[in-house]
Structures are given as C-alpha cells and as structure tokens.
Amino acid sequence: MTAVKNTAASLVFRSRHILSESAGEGYIDTAIKILIAVVLGALLLAGLYALFGETVLPTLTQRIKEMFNYAG
To answer: Between 11 and 26, whose confidence is greater?
Structure first.
C-alpha cells in the first residue's frame, strides 16, 4: 500500500512539475509566429501588387509605346 502511495505522489509531483515549466517553445507560440509571418507576407504582397499595378505598369506601357512609335 505504501508503494502505491509513493508512486501516486511521485506521479502528481512529476505532472505538477511538467505543467508548471515555462521553458521551451509551445504550440501556441509557434502558431502565433506562423500567423504573424503569413499576415506580414500578405501585406507585403498586397503592397507590391498595388505599387506595380498603379504606378509601374502604366508608365512602363506608356514608355514602351513611345519607344516603338515610329511615326513620331
């Protein structure tokens, strides 16, 4: 009977120790880092798409048309 009590007490102590540890990296930390990376990547791509769609491409097509305009 004493061996069972000692084993149960040891199990309780070990589980409390494991649950109270703050070392290491958990699943939630990793998930938050991945979510932040995805959001920042999406914002970066949206900004580049807006920049190329409204600023670079219209002036680029205009310059190409001017460059191949043999009549002028």
So the answer is: 11
CA distance 23 to 4: 30
> What is the structure's pLDDT at 55?
75
Instruction: Name 66's Cβ contacts closer than 8 Å, sequence gap at least 6.
Output: 72
Torsion-angle region of 69 (φ positive above 0: left; ψ -120 to 50: alpha; else: beta): beta
Cα separation of the two ends of the chain: 104
pTM here? 0.47
Domain span at 47: 25-72
In a domain, 9, yes or no: no
